[in-house]
Design brief:
single chain; 471 residues; alpha/beta; five-stranded parallel β-sheet; 16 strands; globular; binds flavin-adenine dinucleotide; binds iron/sulfur cluster
Length: 471
């Protein structure tokens, strides 16, 4: 009999007053006791609605049943049939809109904590099973993967398991994509990503960092080097700006740059030689997960006031509810229904050499109200004339979205992209307009989610295998 408790077992967290000044993980994970109790809430539904909500169709009731029986390693095996990054997805997947949204326990009460259980199982495995997989038998074929984010890593892992010699080319000096340069340590400890990368290396995947495809070497040259297929998982790392006055002032960052300096280049450490501004008053423009990460990172760097400036209301905030709540608990100030008009810089006309010249000292905003719904059904924000006001800030972080970088498109013959720069692919295979070239993840969809990127990497790996075997 399933446990009739209506609410999920709570996730233990670091105290907000303490965690707002440290980079250690916020959510502490279930104990064995909490995991057993949560697993007991699952009804083991025959029609498995939760599975249909998971983009990689993890056999959720089956793995939860194993948790309930205390067979944690068996549960891990079931999850990893479909997902190669369970410790990552258990932490950052927007579960509430995916698997858990379809869970029948959510009709009366809260859904089963599927993501929390997935995290528990993956962490249990990582703690108790140190063995790395054995090198699979090689089939003599070579595939190149561009980018080492979740799409590239998943594609590489699936091909390596099929016996391919896979080389991953990564532009940055560390592998992991957004998992290492974007999502902060306090949400996703980097040791977890490194563990997944070590597993891939044990499968024979070679990762070459500091290689920018399209500059160091082109996709065409990869084919000349004997690679029979190429998967492009280069993400969507090109930041957008608003185009308002003052965006080139000192103290204005894109969220990507700000987070990369802190996460990947460890600017927050005392002895780091990566410069980053440790500002007193910070405005983050935008309302997605990236904006929450930037705001909470700025707090941890010591800012006294951090504002989220977003042009719609709380209801429309695109970030995960949990991240918004965590940011609020930590003291981030939400300035909703406000939009920046210009960023104001310091200007001393009497002394051109004054080092403060050109630094941010404020941001002018205008108040907004919600009007008629747009084509996506979201109520359109409308300016309230004459409502302009200035907030005192010395740093502005723009977090209003990113697009795929045009470099690969501009250096690869025959690769067709859409008007937003996303590579056009066949949905069922990830095949692009160029023979032998496949693509997936944010490079195709624009900024999306880890699990969707992984799903695309998986689909492409299968299609690449079929393509090479049919040649
Ligand atoms: P990426 O992870 O972007 O990886 C692409 C890699 O390709 C990068 O390492 C890049 O350096 C490399 N590359 C690019 N161009 C080249 C080139 N020319 N040559 C070689 N290498 C190249 N999703 C969630 O599901 N949950 C979250 O909580 C969440 N939070 C996020 C927070 C932040 C701050 C950000 C930025 C994103 C977040 N996302 C989240 C989105 C998610 O991380 C992405 O959708 C996912 O990482 C996309 O995976 P990918 O493999 O397509 O690309
Ligand atoms: Fe749910 Fe994400 Fe896990 Fe799928 S991968 S079961 S959507 S948490
Ligand atoms: Fe369990 Fe919910 Fe899935 Fe039913 S829908 S099997 S209760 S997780």
């Amino acid at each position: 009999m399933a446990d009739r408790v209506l609410l999920k077992n709570p996730m233990p967290h670091q105290d907000p007053a303490v965690r707002r000044r440290n980079f250690s993980e916020v959510a502490l994970g279930y104990t064995e006791e909490a995991a057993l109790s949560e697993a007991a809430r699952c009804l083991n539904c025959k029609n498995m609605p939760c599975v249909a909500g998971c983009p990689v169709n993890i056999r959720i009731p089956a793995f939860i049943k194993k948790v309930r029986e205390g067979e944690f390693e068996e549960a891990y095996k079931i999850i990893t049939e479909s997902s190669s990054l369970p410790a990552v997805c258990g932490r950052v997947c927007p579960q509430e809109n995916q698997c858990e949204k379809r869970c029948v326990r959510g009709i009366k009460g809260e859904a089963v904590g599927i993501g929390r259980l997935e995290r528990f199982v993956a962490d249990w495995h990582n703690e108790h099973c140190k063995d790395l997989p054995e090198l699979p038998a090689q089939n003599g074929h070579k595939v190149a993967v561009v980018g080492s984010g979740p799409s590239g890593l998943t594609c590489a892992g699936d091909l390596a398991k099929r016996g391919y010699k896979v080389s991953v080319f990564e532009a940055l000096h560390l592998a992991g994509g957004v998992l290492v340069y974007g999502i902060p340590e306090f949400r996703l400890p980097k040791a977890i990503v490194q563990k997944e990368i070590d597993t891939l290396k044990a499968l024979g995947v070679e990762i070459e960092t500091n290689v920018v495809i399209g500059k160091t070497v082109t996709v065409d040259e990869l084919f000349d080097d004997g690679y029979e297929a190429v998967f492009i998982g280069s993400g969507a790392g090109l930041p957008r700006f608003m185009g308002i006055p003052g965006e080139s002032l000192k103290g204005v960052y894109s969220a990507n740059e700000f987070l990369t300096r802190n996460n990947l280049m460890k600017a927050y450490l005392e002895d780091s030689d990566t410069p980053v501004m440790k500002a007193k008053n910070v405005a983050v423009v935008g309302g997605g997960n990236v904006a929450m990460d930037a705001a909470r990172t700025a707090l941890r760097l010591g800012a006294e006031n951090v504002y989220i400036v977003y042009r719609r209301s709380l209801e429309e905030l695109p970030a995960r509810r949990e991240e918004v709540e965590h940011a609020m608990e930590e003291g981030v100030d939400f300035k909703l229904l406000n939009n920046p008009v210009r960023i104001i810089g310091y200007n001393n006309p009497l002394d051109r050499r004054d080092p403060r010249n050109g630094s941010v000292i404020g941001m002018e905003c205008i108040k907004m109200e919600l009007g008629e719904p747009d084509e996506r059904g979201r109520r359109r924000p409308v300016k309230i004339p004459g409502s302009e006001f200035v907030i005192d800030v010395d740093c502005v972080i723009m977090s209003i979205g990113t697009s795929p970088n045009p470099l690969i498109k501009s250096t690869t013959d025959g690769l067709i992209v859409n008007e937003k720069g996303g590579i056009i692919v066949e949905e069922e295979t990830g095949k692009t307009s160029r023979e032998g070239v496949y693509a997936g993840g944010d490079a195709v969809t624009g900024a999306a989610t880890v699990i969707l990127a992984m799903g695309a990497g998986k689909t492409a790996a299968k299609a690449i295998d079929e393509y090479i075997m049919s040649k």
